[in-house]
Every structure is written in C-alpha cells, then in structure tokens.
Amino acid sequence: MAVRHSANRAMFWRILRRLFGANPGRLFVMLLALGAGAAVTAALLNLQVDAKRRLTSEFTAFGPNVLVMPREGGSRDSSGPTLDESIVKRVPFSWEGSRVYGSAYLFLIADVSSVRSKEDQRVVVGGIHVFGADDLAAAAKIDLQSPEEQLCIVGHQVVDLMHLKVGDRLTLRGAEIQEPCQIALVSRSGSAEDSQIFSHLDVAQRLAGLPDRISLIQLTVQGTAQQIDRFVAALQHELPEAEVRPVRQFTEGQAKIYNRISGLLTATVGIVLLLTGLCVMAAMTNVAMERKMDVGLMKAIGGSMRRVLRLFLAEAALLGLAGGMIGAALGIFLSIGLGKAVFGMAARPRLIVYPVAVALTVIVAILSAFPLRRLTSIRPAAVFRGEA
Fold first, then answer.
1. pTM score
2. Phi, psi of 97 (to 5 degrees)
3. Cα separations (Å) of 199 from 80, 106, 108, 213, 348?
4. Domain that residue 82 falls in
5. Which among 219, 246, 273 is the end of a domain?
6. Who wins on pLDDT, 107 or 255?
C-alpha cells in the first residue's frame, strides 16, 4: 500500500511537471481564464452582499419607515388621540446590529403672529423630540430648545403666506398661553411639513396643555425588509397600548429593488462562471490529446483508470485554486471601484466573499476537466504502437 501511494505521488508530480513545462502558453491561458472568472465573481458577489447595506442607507434617507400611533378608542385629548411620552424610553435604539432612531411629535392648531404679518394665521404646530441619533432630519440638526431663545422650523408655505424670513420672531398662541420662537430654518421637504411649524416638544405640550403627551412616534430602522418586519412585531409586543405600523412603500420597495439587483448579479455570476468553464474546457480538450502517452504508460504499469482520472482532477483543482486565490483577491479590490461607479459609494470588502469565490473557481476547474474522460478509452498497446 505504501509503495502504491508513493508511486501515485511520484506520478502526480510528474504530471504537474509536464503541465508547467510542456506548454506554458496553454497553462497561462487556463490560469488567466480562471483568475479572470474568479475576479469578476468575487467583485459581483461582494457588490451583492454590500448592496443590502447601501440600499438600507439610501432608503432610510427618505424618512421614517415605522410609525407608532395611538390605538383607535385610546386616550383622547384636545389634540386628538395621544400616548404617554414615557413610551419613547421603551423603544430600543438598536435592532439586530442596526441602528434605530426617530422622533416623537405632538400636533396642535395654534394661532401664529409676527411683526411682518398683518393678521394672525392658524397653523398646524408640531412639537418634536429627536432621539437615538442627531441626524434624523433637518430638524435634528438644530437645537430647538436653545437656552438663549426657543427656535422653530417653519414650512416655506407659511413663510410665503406671512412674508417671513430666517431670524424673524413668532408668537404661538394656544388655548390659554402663548410661546415665542425664532425662525431657525425654512423647510422645503415637498410634503405637508411645508405648511407647518415645528418647535421643541416641550413648547407644543405647553401650548396644548398636555404635559408628557405625544401624538406620534416616527422611527427609522436600518436593515432589510425582513429585519424591519421582525422589529415591528417585537415592538408591538412591547407596546400593546400603541399601534405599530411599517411604512410599506419603503420596506416593500427596498425588498423588491434588492431582489432584482441580487437576481441580476447572481445571473451574471453564473454566466461568467459558465464562460470560464467553457474556456478551460477547450484547453483541457487539448491537454487530453497530449496526455495519451502518459495515460497509456500509467495503465501499462497497472494503474487503474479511476486512479489516473483522480490525478488529473487533482491537477485541475490545483489550477482552480491558484487562479481563484489570485483572481478573488483582485476581484474584491475591483468591487470597491464598481461600488463607487454603481452606488456612488465604495463597497465594503466582505471576507466571506473570498473563500466562496475561490471555492466556486475550484469547482468550475474540476467540472471543466470533463474532456479528460475520453482518456478512459485509451489502450496502452495502441498508444505504444502509435495508433491512438
């Protein structure tokens, strides 16, 4: 048994020497094909994995994707259904490794006046309290509860109606009290916020006479559509007194776009591997024609055809491993540039992609050795007589 293993090893190394020495051009072509296939495969797989992160960040830029609202028939105040403000402390700031941030609101109708306006205007005033992050929206970038003076964000429709500008001072009047505020920012969001005024939550609560009450919580949950659905289910269980709803347009749109991108990249990887396999298979066909003498010699000295094929498959696997390791490394760096071109942001290298790309390349190399099966029909006597 030891002698047989020694003979197999000796024959394997002889085959490798023939591979490197007999036709270096063909060896270079096979390594180039396998390396190029591995590079493109690694680049596309890395983009596919990183697409989840990129799409998540793109969609969260559009605004909140989860809403927490009072249930029908719940507590009602002068501003409509409300929740206790303490509910904010029960919202987790992270979920399955992703950030969760948002803002709590209280809405009311208030009379607004200024020195520039000839008459008061009735405007929807929203008190806002941002939590979990400092960059949720434009409102979060301004400290609405400045120690010097209360600030507010005014929609551009209100600004145009009352002929206001940044820096003007307003007076907000509720049912029993009034609150001053200075315009710190003009909102142009293209939504209903353009006709509203936003101040700090405490200001709205005093105007409405509703301390520690909120009307709505808007949350931005980073993650896939499945992660968001699990977050909604868990938060609904944690907050039975409230109604938790995902914004389906965002979550479903994110899932559809990712599935399409993922499907396209997967199909492209499959095509690349197929073309790589065909290229290597063509080279292996020529290898099979050149190896007739080697196979005839091995069969003549008692080697079984199964053992002979294993030696050639090991050679193909070694080629695939070499081409895959070099190509996959280049492909991961290639994906950084592709990420900038496709998504406008460099893709983050994912270590899991490297072994997957190398393994796929090795599998393609082994499958591409199919033409070597024709060596099974070789007869040693015919080879030595020059008939094969």
1. 0.53
2. 85, 0
3. 19, 10, 11, 15, 39
4. 66-246
5. 246
6. 107
